[in-house]
Amino acid sequence: MVCDTLGRPLRFILTAGQRHDCLSAKALLEGFEAEAVLADKAYDNNDLRKTIAEMKAEAVIPSTRSRKVPIPHDQAVYKQRNLVERCFNKLKHFRRFATRYDRRTDYFLAFIHIAAVMLWLR
Q1: What CA–CA distances, in Å, run from 7 to 1, 2, 27, 32?
Q2: Helix 105-121 vs helix 81-91: crossing angle, to nearest 10
Q3: What's the whole-model pTM score?
Q4: Which of 9, 37, 38, 119 would you label with 50, given CA atoms 20 to 30 Å apart?
Q5: Distance CA 15, CA 27 (A)
Q6: How do residues 86-118 score in pLDDT, each as one tens digit?
Q7: Above 90 in pLDDT, residue 49?
C-alpha cells in the first residue's frame, strides 16, 4: 500500500486515455475524508462540488470562465497543488510511465510504485 507522509493510504484510479478524469473524480473521493480537495479548472462542475460538500470538505477549485457567477477559492491552499503537479512531471521523465507501455493496469501501477520509490531515494 502506498501512503502519504502522514501514513494515510493514497488512491490511484487508472482510466482510459481518452476519458476525462473528471468523470472518475467522484469514485476517487468515495469514502475518503479530507479537509480540502484541490483541483484545477477542468474539475469545476456542480456535481463534483456537491460531492465534496457532502464530505464536509472545502472545494479548492478555480472557476471556469464560462461560470456566470465565479465561486471563490483559497488561493494560498491552491498553490499546494503545485507539489502534486511537480510529482507527476517527475514521473513523466520515466519513458515507460509517459508512454504507458504496460497494457495491464496492475503492471502499470506496479511501475508507478517503483518510479515513486526511485524518486524518493534521490
Answers
A1: 10, 9, 21, 14
A2: 110
A3: 0.68
A4: 9
A5: 11
A6: 888 888 888 888 777 777 888 888 888 899 899
A7: yes
